[in-house]
Amino acid sequence: MYESTIIIKKDIDAIYKLFASEDRELNRSKYNITKSKKELLFEITADDAIALKTTFNMITKVLAVWENTKKITGAK
Fold it and tell me: Which residues, in sequence order, are CB contacts of 28 under 8 Å at separation 6+?
């Protein structure tokens, strides 16, 4: 079993909404999202390294699109 954690400390509410409709259980991995006032916590568990990498990449790609969209629109 492999585990990884991603902690986000800005735009918590908006990013949480991005992942609200995402499927959190994949074939060989899953992730949980915990939201507090100060941070958004992604806890990933996977059966193998490839599944861990796939889930990690899926999350970070959504975050990259979020950041790029903010830059293009000038949102803060």
Answer: 46, 47, 48, 50, 51
